[in-house]
Write a structure and sequence with these properties.
Layout lengths: L30 E2 L15 E6 L8 E3 L2 E9 L17 E9 L5 E8 L15 E3 L2 E5 L4 E6 L5 E6 H4 L14 E3 L2 E5 L7 E5 L5 E5 L11 E5 L2 E8 L2 E5 L6 E6 L12 E3 L2 E6 L3 E7 L6 E6 L19 E3 L2 E5 L5 E5 L5 E5 L14 E6 L2 E6 L3 E8 L2 E9 L18 E3 L2 E5 L3 E6 L3
Parallel strand pairs: 1-27
Antiparallel strand pairs: 2-33, 3-4, 4-5, 5-6, 7-8, 8-9, 9-10, 11-12, 12-13, 13-14, 15-16, 16-17, 17-18, 19-20, 20-21, 21-22, 23-24, 24-25, 25-26, 27-28, 28-29, 29-30, 31-32, 32-33
Length: about 450
């Protein structure tokens, strides 16, 4: 490893230290690096600075240059959403990209476009906007890709990837987070030979396309450096793949049949270890070769059950790796600590997620800050906790947001927060809030 993983995305971004301009933050690693942040919440909870009304969606906010960017969904008048969230129908409506003032929550502009939904769990868009040097790129749940002027909302270019690449909407919509690599915008697409597509970020022109699979899945394109080479990881429901980010050429591929396409949690790298986890099909840990772009399987979980789990069966939360240990949320809300080298379970707790026993898909998003973690759970709570191999220690908790999404037959918040400007920005299907976390 010639370059620390945390520096990889910095090559493409010139950022303010307090921005959160993309999925998992400035360095795409779920680490919040601002200083002057509270150790514990004050009595009565942290101060809410503003609230702004929005529509439905799973897409987390991005914060950059004093603005907040978030996507939502508005269903057309006299249109009903299927009572069964698993059902796929034809649901007319529109998607919106909203730009808000980060200090006040006041709407600066919106971009709206017609978008008929055909997926299950049809609440709204899934992917966090990506902001860089005066532009914002967004990816909707039916594969509408936009490049907008970040100041005005003017459309600079746009693609309907579903139509242009003969792709089919996955069961739960298009959800792959966008990745910016220099002049290349990388996105999951689908269609023959185009599971992943790289476009010129300024013109939208195709640079390359790669990989075949029956569906693109929901994975996050991830850049690493290993074997003396920059590699682009693309995990789709039939294999884990390493590509040359400049050309799309495949360096290596490892077959892995993932049930229901659930390639959701972001791949994580620690040293020469690559870790991936899925809801039904457990986890795999690879050893990355030191001299060439290649990998070998180090260990894997054996269970293919959603409930009788062994290592880590995450549905959506990205795990965190630190000091040889993995911290992540399993299929029924078990926050677990595993040994990175073996997958051996060290401990588990429900304290951060359900507060009690097992609940299917119970979730908390994990972000590291200094020597502790911020965990945003599906009940709308924000938790400050320490996690070490010795156990889980909760330091403070505040209820920030009402859970509103009822797709899983209970009310949840399933949208990743943003941490910027000494604040947390969280959304549900009714509002986005800005809460001060300043010391």
């Amino acid at each position: 490893m010639r370059m620390p993983l945390t520096l990889l995305c910095l090559a493409s971004f010139t950022l303010h230290a307090d921005d959160w301009p993309q999925w998992l933050g400035p360095q795409r690693d779920a680490v919040w690096r601002e200083t002057g942040i509270v150790e514990t919440f004050p009595a009565g909870g942290p101060q809410t600075l503003w609230r702004s009304k929005i529509g439905g969606g799973y897409a987390g906010p991005a914060v950059a240059d004093g603005k907040v960017y978030v996507m939502d969904r508005e269903v057309a008048d006299r249109t009903s959403v299927p009572a069964n969230a698993f059902a796929r129908g034809i649901i007319p409506g529109s998607e919106r990209v909203l730009c808000l003032d980060a200090k006040t929550g006041r709407q600066v502009w919106e971009h709206r476009y017609d978008c008929t939904y055909t997926m299950s769990y049809s609440t709204g868009p899934r992917a966090t906007p990506l902001v860089h040097e005066g532009k914002v790129w967004t990816f909707g749940a039916e594969a509408h890709l936009h490049c907008l002027d970040a100041t005005t909302g003017k459309v600079l270019w746009a693609h309907d990837l579903k139509q242009e690449y003969n792709a089919k909407t996955p069961q739960w919509g298009f959800a792959g987070q966008l990745l910016l690599d220099g002049s290349r915008l990388v996105c999951l697409c689908g269609g023959p030979g185009s599971v992943v597509v790289a476009l010129d970020k300024d013109s939208g022109k195709e640079l390359w396309r790669a990989l075949d699979a029956r569906e693109p899945g929901y994975g996050v394109p991830t850049l690493i450096e290993a074997g003396g080479t920059r590699q682009l990881l693309i995990w789709h429901p039939q294999s884990v793949n390493s590509l040359d980010p400049a050309t799309g050429k495949v360096f290596w591929s490892y077959p892995w049949e993932v049930r229901f396409g659930l390639t959701i949690p972001t791949p994580r790298v620690a040293g020469d270890r690559l870790f991936l986890t899925s809801f039904y099909t457990s986890s795999k840990c690879f050893k990355l070769d030191a001299g060439t772009p290649a990998a070998e399987l180090l260990w894997e979980g054996k269970s293919i059950s959603e409930k009788n789990t062994d290592t880590l069966h995450s549905i959506m939360s990205t795990p965190f790796i630190e000091d040889g240990h993995i911290y992540g949320v399993c299929s029924y809300g078990q926050l677990r600590c595993l040994k990175l080298e073996t997958g051996e379970r060290i401990w588990e707790t429900f304290a951060a997620t359900t507060g009690g026993g097992e609940v299917r898909w119970a979730n908390a998003f994990i972000v590291k800050h200094e020597n502790r973690f911020f965990l945003a759970n599906e009940q709308g709570d924000l938790i400050i906790a320490k996690m070490t191999p010795k156990g889980y220690e909760e330091l403070s908790r505040a209820h920030v947001l009402k859970p509103t999404t009822t797709d899983p037959r209970r009310e949840v918040v399933w949208s990743h927060p943003a941490f910027a400007n000494q604040c947390v920005f969280m959304r549900n299907d009714e509002e986005i809030v800005c809460v001060s976390l300043a010391k």
